[in-house]
Design a protein that fits this description.
Layout: E1 3-4, H1 28-35, E2 59-62, H2 73-82, E3 85-86, H3 93-102, E4 116-117, E5 127-131, E6 139-144, E7 150-154, H4 157-183, H5 187-191, H6 195-207, H7 212-224, H8 227-254, H9 260-263, H10 281-295, H11 302-316, H12 318-329, E8 345-348, E9 367-368, E10 372-377, H13 382-396, E11 405-409, E12 420-424, E13 430-431, E14 435-442, E15 445-452, E16 461-463, E17 467-473, E18 479-487, E19 489-495, E20 498-501, E21 503-511, E22 522-531, E23 534-542, E24 545-553, H14 563-569, H15 578-585, E25 592-598, E26 602-607, E27 623-624, E28 651-653, E29 657-660, E30 667-669, H16 682-695, H17 700-712, H18 715-719, H19 721-728, H20 736-750, H21 768-790, H22 792-801, H23 828-838, H24 857-872, H25 876-879, H26 891-895, E31 900-901, E32 919-922
Parallel strand pairs: 7-14, 8-30, 13-31, 18-27
Antiparallel strand pairs: 1-3, 2-4, 2-32, 5-6, 6-7, 9-23, 10-22, 11-12, 11-29, 12-32, 14-15, 15-16, 16-17, 17-25, 18-19, 18-24, 19-20, 21-22, 22-23, 23-24, 25-26, 26-28
Length: 928
């Protein structure tokens, strides 16, 4: 396989510690030379026609770092030693990164400078290779020269899906193998005991502790419950697996399999001894459980909610404390930005007038259920403990990783009269990427776009012949916490009056050092106790009674069900209108916001199996595990229940525009995570798109520019800082340090409040001092503003519900540092409402009291100036303390995006952008 040196400048990553010898050994070049060999078959070029493409060359997409996510051992060694990249491993990273400085002059004609042409087919002079996988005559895989994306064309359904599986393994085999082991809770045994691997397997296995029988049962149930489409899905999956396994066999015998198999000890580089296990159908369910948990399972956090409610009631008394808690919860804030903004109401998970069945813990009684047992070696050291704690917090909280945005404008407001969409999922940055690009054309399938590796029998986010679709994470509550009363001992509970034994599910893992991961030997057992109400997550007492708190998720034991919806989205005979699109995504049980555009219409639908709760149950808090409070028609054997009908889900056709950035979907529709108030990152899109629509004449370029501008905005600066400065400037600032800081902040705000380089590639921010000051000031001002009034106990409890900040450089929260996604979770709405109230401005959904300076402008001003002076005195090294990638004080690097290595190929970090990972720009010109 060809190799190349990068053609654009990136900040090169340091060699990870797990490859300690790669840059030090004198024999690396000899080893590389000995390993180079022919790696793939290239056949004659062939032209693929695209008569079924109605986009008129106006569909584009991008997915960094590149399509090729596989690398041989030789290529990995070359990358580690010299930074060279396999072909198509990072050729989409440069265009993606360059939009951050290139968007101001963007035109329709230059969009594909920063995106790929997403037209169907490949022009004859752009064909790089054509392959008939495993010698089959019913499918070809054509790859284009520019990006290496596979264009799969089949004459039979089986052949088409076989080709999809073969192409997936060509591009992501190692990643697929990693994530099937994550889903099975076996990552450390497979890839090594690095603390990050420990944390990853623990995070997902805690919430989806499936046995092999559980995985198979989910397949059987999905097939049995969906008639002909279920049977077709099973046939498609089996054909896809056959293609994956054919590539495994071919790459094994041809010795061009991913080099990570050698580095982790599964294959021998000299003798080729060792095996790469074939994939089986239950592996697909294990993979789906990881993706669903990451992006499509809203809810949880009820125990944390209960703890903070008790703290509020202890501080203020039951009635007043509950009022304070509800104000900070903002479950239906009247100032929240909405996706469906035409006044429609979709009540869901609202506060009941008379709550019933609540099971709040006795104060101080809550303990987290341990997952790890019998740890030895590095399975039980301090690093392992820290990784386990982080994984537990991520698994049990309601805050999900920041993901995805959408900007969709009706044709009534565009220059062409056709709808325009700029949308995509914000799935993080990995090497190789979790998603992969592909085009699939075959009987009953016609689509191009992105799919999660290992689940790419269908395009999951992309375009069809005359329509496109995408999704954002919605986060509505499909997870409830039940208090099961214990009986006999700690592992028996009352189920409808009968003392019942908990099921025990265990996964034992052991590891030893390898070339890829030098972590010393260790082991542990992950043990989960399962009840009919789900896995046990906490222990506590309620009214003196010993209980276990369990989490019941409507998609638990239903990870495979969504395959039917994706199958429909790929079927041109099924999706022919906004209504049929909405019908298709109703079959997806994960919590997503779905968006659609064709040449004449736009549409939106919120998916997910929303359980119908018993009357009076408040989904914010734990409830007793008693028949009276079960989900309506709940059958524990299959975890099925009555779900809210499609008409009760937020939905719309041809609204003037739609925006979504994981914000509130519609009036009265509660989301599970905190932070849905007056200031949300969705406002960054709302303000820009609303202005474009009011002016009219929207183009692909202008809508893309709106997205790109929002991607560089500091939400705190744009939506909160003006009011903070109002308070400070209510009198002359006499302190020189504070005055200088105010001047810098105002200058930055006047320039747009963006975190952007002085020039492309400068790695230095314009207004760097102002950005440093705000980054240092925000946590100080929030604490000084709210802790005195709330008290330390309640303030601390609320910060467990909602982190105070999620700036790009923040290494805390559900997203973490160097991940791009920012400003989803924070206290900006609280600050906004409180400061406006202090200023005497109108506030809907106001906090129950004024906190800053006890409500007086002068006292609030004193607090703001005092904390601002402290912040201004902090050095860059104090604000940005450095990490394994960045030196202390390197502001640009602290914000920068890293393609986190999941294999042996490294990429450079790029300048921060807050935008989707896979993104489409689409405007269809005609319809079938």
């Amino acid at each position: 396989m060809p190799r190349r040196t990068p053609r654009f400048t990136l900040d090169r990553l340091r060699t990870p510690g797990r490859f300690p010898g790669f840059l030090k050994t004198a024999s690396v070049c000899a080893l590389i030379a000995g390993l180079l060999s022919p790696l793939s078959q290239v056949a004659a070029a062939a032209e693929v026609t695209a008569a079924n493409d109605y986009c008129g060359g106006q569909c584009s997409d991008i997915l960094p770092p590149g399509e090729n996510g596989n690398a041989t051992l030789a290529q990995i060694l070359l990358n580690q030693a010299f930074g060279t990249q396999p072909d198509h491993a990072e050729d989409q990273l440069g265009p993606y990164a360059n939009l951050a400085k290139g968007y101001p002059t963007l035109t329709n004609a230059t969009i594909n400078t920063f995106f790929n042409d997403a037209s169907f087919g490949v022009a004859a002079d752009q064909v790089a290779s054509t392959l008939s996988p495993a010698g089959r005559s019913d499918v070809t895989i054509v790859r284009d020269k520019k990006t290496g994306v596979p264009h799969i064309t089949g004459t039979t359904r089986y052949g088409t899906e076989f080709g999809a599986g073969y192409a997936a393994a060509q591009d992501r085999l190692w990643l697929m193998d990693v994530f099937r082991h994550v889903g099975r809770g076996q990552l450390t045994a497979f890839a090594g005991g690095d603390p990050s691997n420990q944390g990853l397997e623990q995070q997902f296995w805690r919430n989806a502790p499936y046995t092999e029988a559980d995985l198979q049962a989910q397949i059987d149930n999905a097939v049995a419950g969906n008639g002909a489409r279920g049977r077709q899905a099973l046939a498609d999956a089996n054909a896809y697996l056959a293609g994956v396994n054919a590539y495994i066999d071919a790459s094994d015998s041809g010795r061009y399999f991913p080099g990570e198999y050698v580095l982790t000890g599964h294959k021998d580089s000299i003798t080729n001894a060792g095996t790469i296990d074939h994939f089986k159908i239950t592996d697909l369910v294990a993979l789906a459980s990881v993706i669903g948990a990451l992006f499509g399972s809203g809810g949880g956090g009820e125990v944390d909610n209960a703890v903070s409610l008790l703290a509020a009631q202890e501080k203020y008394g039951v009635e007043a404390g509950t009022q304070v808690w509800e104000a900070f919860r903002e479950r239906n804030d009247p100032e929240a930005v909405l996706t469906v903004h035409d006044g429609q109401s979709f009540p869901y998970a609202t506060k009941p007038a008379s709550p019933q069945g609540g099971a709040l813990p006795d104060p101080g009684s809550v303990t987290t259920e341990p997952l790890i047992h019998d740890a030895t070696g590095t399975g039980g050291d301090a690093e392992a403990g820290a990784a386990s704690a982080t994984a537990t917090a991520a698994a049990l909280g309601s805050a999900r990783r920041g993901m995805s945005n959408a900007l969709v404008v009706s044709g009534r407001s565009t220059a062409s009269g056709h709808p325009i969409a700029v949308f995509g999922p914000q799935t993080g940055y990995f090497a190789p990427q979790l998603l992969m690009l592909q085009e699939i054309q075959g009987p009953g399938i016609s689509a191009r776009g992105a799919s999660f590796a290992g689940l790419s029998m269908y395009v999951e986010l992309g375009r069809g012949q005359d329509y496109a679709w995408s999704a954002t994470t919605s986060g509505q509550d499909i997870i409830d916490t039940y208090a099961v009363e214990l009986c006999q001992d700690d592992h028996h509970y009352l189920y409808h009056g009968a003392c019942t034994a908990m099921d025990v599910v265990e996964q034992k893992n052991a590891w030893k050092p390898t070339t890829a991961d030098g972590t010393a030997a260790g082991s542990y057992t992950m043990r989960v106790y399962r009840t009919k109400y789900g896995p046990v997550e906490y222990r506590a007492t309620v009214g003196g009674k010993k209980v276990a708190y369990t989490t019941l998720r409507s998609s638990f034991m239903h990870e495979a069900d969504s395959i039917i919806g994706f199958q429909m989205l790929n079927d041109p005979d099924y999706v022919q209108s906004p209504q049929t699109f909405q019908s298709a995504v109703q079959h997806i049980n994960y919590t997503f916001n779905w968006f659609y555009a064709d040449s004449a219409h736009t549409a939106y639908y919120n998916s997910g199996d929303n359980p119908v709760r018993a009357s009076g149950v408040d989904p914010e808090f734990p409830v007793w595990a008693q028949a009276a409070y079960d989900w309506k028609s709940w059958a524990p054997a299959t975890n099925t229940a009555e779900y809210t009908p499609a008409s009760a889900h937020p939905r719309s056709v041809d609204q003037d525009y739609y925006i979504s950035w994981n914000n509130k979907q519609a009036k009265d529709y509660s989301t599970a995570s905190w932070g849905g108030g007056s200031v949300h990152r969705g406002n960054l899109l709302e303000d820009r798109v609303k202005k474009l629509v009011a002016a009219g004449g929207v183009t692909r370029a202008s809508l893309t520019k709106a997205m790109a501008d929002a991607a560089l905005a500091d939400l705190r600066a744009e939506d909160v800082l003006p009011d903070l400065l109002k308070v400070i400037n209510s009198a002359t600032v006499t302190d020189s340090t504070a005055a200088a800081a105010v001047t810098k902040l105002q200058t930055w705000l006047t320039a747009g409040g963006r975190r952007t380089e002085t020039a492309a590639g400068s790695r230095t921010y314009a207004d760097a001092d102002a950005i440093r000051i705000l980054d240092a000031w925000w946590p100080l001002l929030v604490k000084a503003e709210f802790e005195p009034g709330l008290g330390t106990g309640l303030y601390t409890a609320f910060t467990a519900n909602l982190p105070i900040d999620e700036a790009p450089s923040a290494a805390h929260g559900p997203t973490g540092a160097h991940a791009g996604s920012s400003f989803q979770y924070g206290w900006w709405s609280y600050v906004d409402k409180d400061i406006r109230a202090v200023l005497g401005e109108s506030v809907q959904g106001a906090l129950p009291r004024k906190y800053c300076g006890s409500g007086t402008v002068s006292s609030c001003r004193d607090i703001l100036i005092s904390t601002l002076k402290t912040a201004a005195g902090k050095t860059a090294a104090q604000v940005y303390p450095g990490d394994t990638l960045c030196a202390a004080g390197n502001q640009w690097c602290a914000d920068s995006i890293v393609q986190r290595t999941l294999g042996g190929i490294k990429h450079g970090n790029i300048s921060w952008q807050n935008r989707p990972t896979f993104q489409q720009v689409v405007e269809f010109t005609s319809h079938r």
